[in-house]
Amino acid sequence: MSIVNTLQKCVIESLSALHNINFTEKDFQINETKPEFEGDYTVVLFSLIKPVKSSPEALGKNLGEYLIKEYPGYFTQFNVIKGFLNLTISNNFWIDFVNKNYDDICFGKKPLNGKKVMVEYSSPNTNKPLHLGHLRNNFLGWSVAEIFKASGYEVIKSCIVNDRGIHICKSMIAWQLFGNGATPESTSTKGDHFVGEYYVKFENELKKQAAELASKEALKNYTHYNGEEQNKVVAFETQKVKLLEENNDKNKEKIVKINDELLEIRRNATPIMKTAKNMLLDWEAGKPDVIELWKKMNGWVYEGFEVTYKKIGSDFDTTYYESNTYLLGKETVQQGLSKNVFFAKDDGSVWIDLTADGLDEKLVQRKDGTSVYITQDIGLAQQKYDEYKIDRSIYVIGDEQNYHMKVLKLICQKLGMPYADNIYHLSYGMVELPTGKMKSREGTVVDADEIVAEMENIAKEKTEQLGKVNDFNNEELNKLFHTIGLGALKFFLLRVDPKKRMIFNPEESIDFHGFTGPFIQFNHARIKSILRKGELKKGAVIDNDLLPLEKNLIVALEKYPLVLQQACHEMNPSVIAIYVYEIAKTFSSFYTEHSILSAETENKKQLRLKLANLTANVVKSAMAQLGIEVPDRM
Q1: Exposed, middle or buried: residue 246 (CB in 10 Å: 0-12, 13-18, 19+)?
Q2: Whole-angstrom distance, CA of residue 333 vs CA of residue 343
Q3: Which three-class secondary structure string do you get for 509-547?
């Protein structure tokens, strides 16, 4: 039981004895005492004044005296200041805490609670390799899953692979046009990188062909368009000329929008785009040669993904494929129609009206009877529930899908799905570079493999500058550089609240003295070095005369279970990242001032050794929730 829980219990029992009134922990607050006041924890009395019919000063005095008398093992003194009861915790409590937990590698974790949680993350497309944005997604999803595990939940890690659609056909068409039979093996290229290169080649050719169509338009040649496209182009050009003639600054935004519309029409009218769309129709029809090529190229990508996932420490218990799920949800459409949740338009398409919920009308089935993404997601949500009977389904998806996820949950609720209320969108902000946003079409994304390799190189450079690894062999060094580099990357991406967008700077993430993973890893290695030199005696008497820095460290370590609880409740790994950094910083301050191995007495030495061991365990456990290893030597 944490000190806060203990305090709550003591206060509730004391109030009942003093005033014969039953309270719960929700009826009052307990906070850490502010630095300018004497005490460790503060009971906020204002919410208790009316029920007990007492002034703040009288209530605080009576409650403080009762706590000191009835719980001498917990409290040593108190003071009351304007409705705040400040309590000083007995050193015996802190010493008892250290003795009970110093060698408990499971400290802070909870036993199984019988509830199941599925966390879906990664969601890659098979037309390109994983990139920096995927890394934040993977690290966030994996960490949240581990935090739920530590909090007593049975966790299923899942991934949905977007392995079908026009974007996949683009890579396939480009390989047919420009590949000349090349393979990842023949070009010594990782499979996902290989396929991704052809996606970029397709976009480059598409731009070229779209530019050629623009040149023809300038000559009023519209023979490459069908009737509907030609009418749209002429109408847009006429509107654009009129806006330009008006020479009004207010028209600039309208002209930009018209140019975007014209570009989209040109892109769709290019021969290469038409070929890709025809290939998608052939895929849906199950044309053997198209299916064979699709399987072959996806196979290349999966092999590449597997290498990356292993390198970054990401794994899944179950994987879903869009090629298997895109037909799901069609039965749901019929159910929705029968329940009058959905309605059909004259053209046969099926919709749901969400205007009363502050949204708009949403298409759930096309007029040709095919599903749309939202329908597939409803079907997959049902499949997940049927397979695992999960109590909560967490989707780790970027904030650009906030609207889509809001619609998904709302539709499921209106359909009366048993899992609907437990759908949760863990929305996170995009990762940008100092140079701005990344663009897959232009090949300007930061490749995940490349950034991991860059982090390893920076780790190597900075570690060698410190000159403390002369006794490492090559294998140990390579593992250390990977551990430090990947740890720095994960910590940097997880230390920020998921809801916030962020800018990634590799150099800034590896600093052995800042708010970074390597700083924490270094302090863990330093503690392990101390423990290797000192003999920690089980059952040894330890000094209970706590110095301020010793007490600060114990108080901070005692909070770990509550930090885990908060991180789980908020689904926010940054809570743990900030906490474990503070622990490392607190230990560093303590160690700078006080020797462990040359302590004043044997009892004091044993106290500090146990405190160091507990610190190492908490640091290792907390970093493990973030997916970060902490080496024993650095």
Answers
A1: exposed
A2: 9
A3: HCCCCCCCHHHHHHHHHHHHHHHHHCCCCCCCCCCCCCC
| Other Cβ atoms within 10 Å of 506 Cβ, number | 17
pTM passes above 0.85:
yes
Q: Which domains does the chain have, with CATH numbers?
A: 3-89 (3.30.1360.70), 168-285 (no CATH), 335-368 (no CATH), 492-625 (1.10.730.10)
Nearest to 581 by CA among 599, 563, 600: 563
d(CA 400, CA 394): 16
Pairing status of strand 154-161 against strand 318-321: parallel
How far is the CA of 402 from the CAs of 397, 409, 440, in angstroms? 8, 11, 21
Give the bridge partners for 80, in sequence order: 85
Q: How far apart are CA 58 and CA 38, in angstroms?
A: 19
Residue 558 has pLDDT above 90, yes or no: yes
Burial of 274 (0-12, 13-18, 19+ CB in 10 A): exposed
∠ at Cα 308 (523, 448), nearest 5°?
Answer: 75
Q: What is the DSSP letter of 54?
A: -
Residue 217: pLDDT band by 50, 70, 90 thresholds? confident
Closest of 350, 439, 455, 519 to residue 131, by C-alpha: 439
State the amino acid at position 430 in one-letter form.
M
Strands 343-344 and 350-353: antiparallel
Give 239-281 pLDDT, tens digit per residue. 888 888 887 888 888 889 999 999 999 999 999 999 999 999 9
Is residue 503 over pLDDT 90? no
Alpha helices (H) along 270-391: 271-284, 288-312, 322-325, 330-338, 373-388
| Amino acid letter for position 247 | N
- Per-residue pLDDT tens digits for 338-393: 999 999 999 999 999 999 999 999 999 988 888 889 999 999 999 999 999 999 99
Phi then psi for residue 497, to 5 deg, are -50, 130
- CA dist., res. 478 & res. 464, Å (int): 12
Buried b / exposed e along 348-373 (16+ C-beta atoms within 10 A): ebbbbebeeeeeeebebbeeeeebbb
DSSP bridge pairs for 208: none
